[in-house]
Design a protein that fits this description.
Number of domains: 2
Radius of gyration: 24 Å
CATH superfamily of the largest domain: CoaB-like
Largest sheet: 8 strands, mixed
Shape: globular
Bound molecules: cytidine-5'-triphosphate
Number of helices: 14
């Protein structure tokens, strides 16, 4: 809850400005006061009238607005809030911030503020991927700016890829996190999650029963403690975590490539239930039944071990590498051997015999295996397990 907290929301010019209207509603519902600033480009997408009706406050638009200056100057406006949120944050406004430009109200406030700034970027995928934008994001991160999103998906301009503004509930979660306890602030954590699907032909695949719930809960908990989270997920049924950079993949090979692209990170947590094999000769067209009644032979090839590949590398190895071990027999002995074989620092072993109801269920019961030995944690919800894992990671860096 954000009772008594003040947010200064800057709305720049982008089609996703309409989502900021919902963000104002969510913020007010959670008890926050919202002052809004609308840039000239922003006013092409939403109106001051809508903003003032939703926020219940005057909308600020002009740098040299004498009435405003007599009531509240731009310096005070930039400091009266607990947090400055820019949603949508355009490539242009971010570039201005990088250079310390202050030629309109929004950029002046961002230069004058002494409060944390959270940006929710939104732009066309090519603009997002452009080297200039990526350089600017890195500079802003180094300067201490927080980010939520962008997400990957279909875009208003008809293209597909990263660049969509995070959804209002994700931005709200990022705001709550920015205003709360943040022991993992400044740490980048990678989480893999969900099953992988290995195609047999265009309509069939090999898969497993993972729901992705534990991975989502871990990403949520890490984000809640202030970490910047990259979440690489297979086709999981669980909801995607809030406030994280989500990368959707299908196969183990794609997951490894996405993980490698996300390095360097401080921590990597491999919660995905990666398929051990893929079909060696998957077909581009549907396999038809043959008149002889003989089923097709499927030759399998081993998939790359993503955890071991990252844990055993010398260059860019995350400072903390965490694995999971799904076991049905001799859980501790197998998991202890697995930790050494895969080269990870911590390994959470879980008993996935069907009678435990853990695989795909709401609860987990894990044993943490480290160099120091085995530590059994009580059975609890996946959200509580995740919270405890995130706190343990924070302790590790304390
Ligand atoms: N893992 C991985 N890539 C794979 C297989 C597993 O990154 N190709 C990771 C999982 O995310 C998990 C850990 O390795 O963190 C252990 O997964 P598990 O399925 O228990 O182990 P396997 O290596 O598949 O071993 P086995 O099936 O022989 O028990």
């Amino acid at each position: 809850m954000l009772e008594g907290r003040k947010v200064l929301l800057i709305i720049a010019g982008g089609i996703s400005a309409y989502k900021s209207l919902e963000l104002i509603r969510l913020l007010r519902k959670s008890g926050a006061a919202v002052a809004t600033v609308l840039t000239a480009a922003g006013s092409e997408f939403v109106t001051s009238l809508t903003l003032s009706a939703l926020s219940g406050e005057k909308v600020h638009t002009e740098l040299f607005d004498l009435t405003s200056e007599s009531e509240m100057g731009h310096i005070e406006l930039s400091r009266s809030a607990d947090l400055v949120v820019v949603a949508p944050a355009t490539a242009d406004l971010m570039a201005k911030c990088v250079h310390g430009l202050a030629n309109d109200l929004a950029s002046t406030l961002l230069l004058a503020t002494d409060k944390p700034v959270l940006m929710a970027p939104a732009m066309n995928v090519r603009m997002w991927e452009h080297a200039a934008t990526q350089r600017n994001i890195n500079t802003l991160r180094t300067d201490g700016t927080l980010f939520v999103g962008p997400n990957e998906g279909d875009m208003a301009c008809g293209e597909f890829g990263p660049g969509r503004m995070a959804e209002p509930p994700e931005i709200l979660a990022a705001i709550e996190s920015a205003l709360g306890e943040r022991p993992l602030a400044g740490r980048h954590v990678l989480v893999t999650s969900g099953p992988t699907h290995e195609p047999i032909d265009p309509v069939r695949y090999l898969a497993n029963r993972s729901s992705g719930r534990q991975g989502t809960a871990i990403a949520d908990a890490l984000f809640g403690l202030g970490a910047e989270v990259t979440f690489v997920t297979g086709p999981a049924s669980a909801a995607r975590p809030r406030g994280c950079r989500v990368v959707e993949v299908e196969t183990a090979t794609e997951m490894l490539a996405a993980v490698e692209r996300s390095l360097p990170v401080d921590v990597a947590i491999f919660a995905a239930a990666v398929a051990d094999w893929h079909v060696a000769s998957s077909r581009d067209s549907k396999i038809k039944k043959d008149s002889s009644g003989r089923p097709p032979m499927l030759a399998l090839t081993e998939n790359p071990d993503i955890l071991a590949t990252i844990a055993l590398r010398t260059e860019n190895r995350p400072a903390l590498v965490v694995g999971f071990a799904a076991e049905t027999d001799e859980v501790i002995a197998n998991a202890t051997a697995k930790r050494l074989r895969k080269g990870c620092d911590w390994l959470f072993a879980n008993d996935v015999r069907p009678e435990t109801g853990i695989m795909g269920g709401p609860e987990n019961s894990v044993t943490l295996i480290t160099e120091a030995g085995a530590e059994a944690w009580p059975r609890m919800s996946k959200a509580e397990t995740a919270e405890r894992i995130a706190r343990r990671v924070a302790q590790h860096f304390a």
